[in-house]
Specification:
Blueprint lengths: L10 H15 L40 E9 L3 H21 L28 E6 L38 E7 L2 H14 L4 E10 L28 H4 L17 E10 L1 H4 L4 H8 L34 H5 L12 E11 L5 E11 L3 H10 L9 E11 L12 H4 L1
Antiparallel strand pairs: 1-3, 1-4, 2-3, 2-8, 5-7, 5-8, 6-7
Helix pairs in contact: 2-3
Length: 411
Amino acid sequence: MTQAPRRSFLKGALTAGVGAAAAGAAGYSLHGTPAAAAVVPAAGFLPPVPFHGEHQAGIAPASQNQTAVISFTATAEGRAELTDLFRALTSRARFLATGGTPPPVGISAPPSDSGTLGPTVVPDGLTVTVGVGSTLFDDRYGLAGQLPAKLYPMQPFPNDDLDQAQCGGDIVLQLSAGSTDTVMHALRDIARNTRGGMQANWRIDGFTSPARPAGTVPRNTFGFMDGISNPSPGEFDSLVWIQPGTRGEPSWTAGGSYFVVRLIRMLVEFWDRVDIGEQEDMIGRRRASGYPLSEMSIYADPQYDLDPDGTIIPQSAHMRLANPRTPQTADSRILRRAYNYDRGIDEVGNLDVGLVFTCFQQDVQRQFEAVQTRLINEPMVDYISPFGGGYFLALPGVQDSSDYYGRTLLE
């Protein structure tokens, strides 16, 4: 029997795309539903997030209810297979984010969809954010000359306890949506259609809590509101998106963003023994309201210049170190997106809960690492244990139906 070529691992995904395109020409959309009909979200599901654009759709919006971050090693053999992998990944992400009815298959073939969302795939606000790590630019695929200027393996900081089995990766996916089953469905679909092209290394699931008692800012497992201060959309071009012609950057990176993942265990049993005043001094905000200790509204400027000695907000407070609000540190701000995680209990019965911290920026060293350096030995380090994550380059967006993730890198 003649052995099938290795590139057949993507045959299903790519053939499905071709078949669906033909169906669209005959009056049906890419996903086998009538071309004129939009996928209507079921009750309780979020509407679709537009897939195409200059930037990936999952970066700018606020954190979704559910997320999963999965790191992969590329197992494709050669540049052509890697290109097929990214084409297949794009095809599946586009379908999952848009929704529709999975194509029928023969009676003796496995179904084309897991069925976990029912007979019709409802988008539920799904976004698929794809990044690449520095290890993808070794000698396997001829990409060494295209390495982004500021991409390198994640650096440990003095208070970290990194587990290398949960660090790095050639490719990273962040799947975010309104419901847990939507995220799981997307992961199963992508894994099935890219099998042979990439292999999972590590994965972590996260969630955002409802804003309590009201408002829009969720709380972390320490009970404090998380992610209050972020750049405004008008600042994204100067802080988040890599701009065309950026000095030292390969041209293909324009429209992308450096993507940091930091997995942080939060030692809640110890934190729960600390009095509320000390907790608030470590953070710099009121736990109940989220207000800076110096102010009476959540988004108020803490006015550090009026408190130079840290009498009201200690100089060692997390919020003051992370964002001193000085002209010198204005360009080190990051777009922060954080999720809680709950992995049950560890081997000695302690709660294994914490934060899936992600952030996006133009320059890891100028932004994330500058912030993290200011946080070395902050009082809160006694109550957290960063253990994994990585540095990645979130690829530019997929512009239209003929485009795919990483096209400007691979072609």
